[in-house]
Amino acid sequence: MKSVIGIACMAVLLTVSGLFWTATEAAAASAEEINIGADATLQRFKDAVMGGEQFLARAKGVLVFPKVIKAGLIVGGEYGEGALRIDNRTVAYYSTAAGSLGLQAGAQSKSIVLVFLTASALQDFRASTGWKAGADGSVAVVQWGVGEDINSLDIKDPIVGFVFGNKGLMFNLTIEGAKFTRITK
């Protein structure tokens, strides 16, 4: 009986690692592909968030992940590549990765936009060799009402995150535990 359980656990782990490997390989993109995706994601942000263009103009930097793929079967992982923009110009590329354990099966894609509202938060992020949300810095996921201008909120957090799914902006999500690492493209 123990060997059957062991074999079943091994099969689940191999399936998950295969899904995660496939997701990371599929997500690997060229600098040009990341920049095109970042442009589209930022346009989607401006269209979905009332006052989004003015909000982004206040940012010291914006980290944009056009496609973060999450795959799993009990054990899951997610991976994506994105661009750090300062003054509307890409200055570096980053990957994001996270793991999870729990009731899950399948794969999905999402986009993430992290807005650095203070120079010190941006500087701390850029100086790190592997920045982990929640451990190295807190990321607030902003909530507001439909039709409300984001600029009408008194946001005091130095880093604000937005997550988009297939149906638009997603609320009540966290990116705590996600690790962001600079990559060369």
- Domains, number: 1
Question: What sort of overall outline do the alpha carbons produce when their principal axes are compared?
Answer: globular
Give the H and E element order: HHHEEHEEEEE
Whole-Å distance between the termini?
49 Å
Rg computed from alpha carbons, rounded to a whole number of angstroms: 18 Å
Q: Percent of residues in helical segments?
A: 25-40%
Number of strands: 7
Please count the helical segments. 4
Strand content: 35-45%
Low-confidence stretches: 2-27
Largest sheet: 7 strands, mixed
Protein model, in words:
- This protein has 185 residues and is of the alpha+beta class.
- It has one domain (2-183).
- It has four helices and seven strands.
- It has helices spanning 2-27, 31-48, 52-57, 119-127, and strands spanning 61-86, 89-116, 131-132, 140-141, 159-165, 168-170, 179-183.
- Strands 1, 2, 3, 4, 5, 6 and 7 form a seven-stranded mixed beta sheet that branches.
- A hairpin with a 2-residue loop joins strand 1 and strand 2 (89-116).
- The longest helix is centred in the N-terminal third of the chain and has 26 residues, at 2-27.
- Mean pLDDT is 78; it is low at 2-27.
Topology of helices and strands:
Elements: H1 2-27, H2 31-48, H3 52-57, E1 61-86, E2 89-116, H4 119-127, E3 131-132, E4 140-141, E5 159-165, E6 168-170, E7 179-183
Parallel strand pairs: 4-5
Antiparallel strand pairs: 1-2, 2-5, 2-7, 3-7, 5-6
Short synopsis of the structure:
With 185 residues, the chain is an alpha+beta fold. It has one domain (2-183). The protein is built from four helices and seven strands, in the order αααββαβββββ.
